[in-house]
Specification:
3 domains; homodimer; DNA-binding
Chain lengths: ~350, ~350
DNA sequence: TTTGGCACTCGAGGTGCATGAGTGCTAAAA
DNA sequence: TTTTAGCACTCATGCACCTCGAGTGCCAAA
């Protein structure tokens, strides 16, 4: 898209104005608020052309123009400048990000809360994608007859566990034997490559437990392992969207919150963005999806901005916000970037 | 409150009508919809008296009457009849309540989801109150140098755990020793009576670990135990409130969702209801709070209906809904009662 | 005590009109 | 060729005004 300088300037001015006033911007007010060296009539012509290019649109004939999705896209891709936060803005965020937290999930929740508060939008955090990580330990602890706790320790120090039922008459010793046998066989393997077959056959060779008993335990252990890489999503600040003029129509707000409440959808979508980006070999610090680019119901007026945090070298997850597409992108991006940095710092602190 | 029969009848009819139509009900429409043997003028007189008694109120002069909080209270306390659900209603709920779930939290979430779907309101579930339960086991598992998992097993088979940091150079054996020593001392005690002092002094006598190392581990174990009885709350279906006419004003919806998002508040409040009820020696299957009786901001137009589920003989928690005070109380109560029964069944199934 | 009747209230919803911020287009100026 | 001034046109918004109807309270008769 080869826009001449003036067109760029006009588009940028319109986005800036619209984002702050939430009113369709017309040629006159544009002249008033910015120091263009040309007249409003000229701007009108420029605006008409930008509209032909699909970068602007009119809500109705006698109103000003607003940016289209494509217009926003052009804006974020090549017009916008992302500045660093000011010291006071940084301080404000730092005060909210607590350092006294020892678990990844808590770090993420805390960061997401902060993000929602500072942006005023919905924030979301995805748990780390663990499929590629390795199983380090697997313990099965007897809780009481018939009940055990399967503890799965993954590389990068992530711990997951699950209460499972086991045969009533299984003794502590027997359970211990099974547990060690299984652990010996699966330790060091990546989550992807562990299947029930490998787990079952290998374990059976070693222990002298009756097969019927063994099977149940193995099965439970297997499901515990498999569910360790379940993608959790944490959404925060939905109610904040109700304060935005963009959702002053109740029906919009309803659609939005309705979709957000199906949190598997959001998680899946963000995961998808991430995967696509990786497939395309892009390695941006942040990812943006605007309006219709998002194929989720009720999110036509929203944008996603997400970024990636790291857990060691190979494991990553996402955190970001869902806001109205009419937002101050550069500001929000700086905020997200800063929070991301804080998360990474905090995670490193925990895992030395 | 000694109402004569006709007044009762009138109040009941008004509540019933208002709840279904969401329109202030006037004397005429009341006559039309119900078969009163008197004229509208008589009803007008009755209604005027009911208003004097504070059971009805007028939104404005030329409109019909709506029940006041006190009116609703009278209705639920002595007018309403709670019927059993029909078979098909039961079936519908039973289909959603999954039986294949093995953890209490999952049972509760599943039940709350069901409740929100069938009522169309917000549902909430509180985790069981564990303060009074006994500590059965305490294990500290080494995850990697410097990091351990504290597993707390409580009576009634509830398991809680927490990842903690420990001194880097602590060996597996040392940790095991500490772990067993602590366990021997706290096992069988109730969560309330365990203090850091008792835990620390008793453990120190037994093990031969340097005190500085010991302290950190003990402290972490202690916090893990203490946080085991943290009250978790699960809220579901907030977005459904946006579809209700009661919250068609955006500002109301905003206030409501704003308060609900502070979930400690809701949890605290429900816990309080429960405590009060117990203090007063009441042992109802359900508890109702209407409108202004709830001292939370933005919930003036809401009612809480909660009920208690049991985990064994001594441990309990709550589940219920938050809906508009203009709701079909008897229907919702039946639904909640039925779901409660299902929860109790499911819990029993897990804990034999 | 009940009822019919009547005057009154007031919100909801419809119509009409003025306002003003916007537009596109054209013809003249640069 | 590009820019600009001017002009006719559009249309959402807000206000004033009106009507309608469902409600009320009260009074006098049954």
């Amino acid at each position: 898209m080869a826009l001449d300088d003036r067109k760029k300037q006009v588009l940028q001015a319109i986005v800036d104005d619209y984002v702050t006033t939430y009113e369709p911007v017309g040629s006159k007010s544009l002249i008033e608020r910015h120091d263009f060296t040309v007249s409003s009539a000229t701007l009108r012509n420029e605006m008409a052309e930008l509209e032909k290019l699909g970068l602007l649109e009119k809500p109705h004939t006698s109103a000003g123009r607003i940016p289209s999705d494509k217009g926003y896209r052009e804006y974020v891709d090549s017009l916008m400048r992302v500045d660093d936060l000011t010291e006071s803005e940084k301080k404000e965020i730092e005060e909210r990000i607590s350092e006294s937290v020892d678990e990844v999930t808590d770090i993420l929740k805390n960061a997401a809360d902060t993000l929602s508060e500072t942006t005023g939008f919905v924030s979301l955090a995805l748990s780390p994608r663990l499929q590629g990580s390795y199983l380090m330990q697997l313990k099965i602890l007897m809780i009481e007859p018939g009940k055990a706790l399967v503890v799965v320790v993954l590389s990068a120090g992530v711990v997951k566990d699950k209460v499972v039922r086991i045969p009533n008459f299984l003794t502590n010793e027997q359970l211990y034997k099974i547990s060690s046998a299984v652990e010996r066989h699966v330790a060091g393997k990546s989550l992807d490559e562990i299947t029930y077959i490998t787990l079952a056959t290998s374990a059976k060779e070693e222990s002298e437990i009756p097969e019927s008993m063994l099977n149940q335990v193995l099965y439970e252990a297997y499901t515990a392992i498999k569910q360790a890489d379940r993608l959790d999503v944490y959404l925060q600040g939905e109610h904040r969207m109700l304060s935005l003029p963009d959702f002053s129509e109740l029906s919009r707000a309803r659609d939005l919150l309705g979709t957000l409440s199906k949190d598997g959808m959001v998680a899946g979508y963000v995961n998808e963005i991430e995967r696509t980006a990786r497939d395309e070999g892009r390695d941006d610090t942040y990812m943006i999806r605007i309006g219709q680019e998002i194929a989720l119901e009720g999110l036509d007026d929203c944008s996603f901005i997400t970024t990636t945090y790291k857990l060691g070298d190979t494991i990553s997850g996402n955190i970001g916000i869902i806001g109205p597409k009419r937002m101050d992108y550069s500001k929000v991006i700086s905020q997200i970037n800063f929070v991301r940095k804080k998360i990474n710092d905090n995670i490193k602190r925990i895992y030395e």
